[in-house]
Amino acid sequence: MTDHLLELPGIPNARELGGYAAGGKAIKKGLLIRTARIDQAEAEAVSILQKRYHLQTIVDFRMTEEKSLMPDPDVPGCENLFHSVMDLKEAVEGNPEVIKKSGGSAEKALAGIGKILSKYTDPSADRIALLNGMCESGILKTDIYQGFLLNERGKEAYRAFFRAVLELDSDRAILWHCTDGKDRTGCAAMLLLFALGASRETVMEDYLITNKVNEKKLAAAREQAEACHLEGDKLDLLLFISGGAIESFMNRAIDTLTERYGSIEGYLEQELGVGKAELSELRGRYLG
Length: 288
Hints:
Blueprint: E1 15-16, E2 21-22, E3 25-26, E4 32-35, H1 43-51, E5 55-60, H2 64-69, E6 79-82, H3 88-93, H4 96-101, H5 106-117, H6 127-137, H7 144-150, H8 152-166, E7 173-177, H9 184-195, H10 200-213, H11 215-227, H12 232-241, H13 247-261, H14 264-272, H15 276-286
Parallel strand pairs: 4-7, 5-6, 5-7
Antiparallel strand pairs: 1-4, 2-3
Helix pairs in contact: 5-6, 6-12, 7-8, 7-13, 9-10, 13-14
């Protein structure tokens, strides 16, 4: 499992898809890199990305607010693309339940949720209080991945991601990331692995590496959960906001796409414009 992890100082949850079995072959190494936030990348990491991986493209899936607070570094010779999977203002204005819970005002809901989310990346923040605030506001649910994959902004972001992967030079790498590198980034990795012909087991293996990376955070969260007698969905959501990859969340997303589109390939073709020709090109490029 940890064979896919990359040593990029200052960049958490860094790993590559290279080496996974797909389509009867193996994914080529050194080309497809997924990470968490990269704003704290050390000079050594930037040098590795430039000189070892010949990084050509960075795709940032974060919200505008996250990007503004934690801007990506410049990697010489690399193009930075910003394709947010979700927009906080759109998410609030399009959700009557969230607005109702805030007292009927979208502006008030947006301000309140903004305060809650400002604590998300603070490791010292009380995760139980954060969980309660996110659940009470209506912005945290177990079907969060379906939201990423089925809303128009998310579909356009993943459409742009596949365009970037298809336009990559043969000897250069692409890096995609969000903040934690497990959810918006994880959905992109899931789609790309299926596009390359990987099995569901391989997709899940890649997704769950995050739990190995964040095992100390998750152990602390489990202690909190035990003390508060959390279980079921509430336990899963606490682990989720504490850095966990929740297997049932990804399984539900895969099942939803399969039910609606007949298969993941159906979703790729109908929503992202990745049809048989594009799948053939992807497999020709990235399998060896």
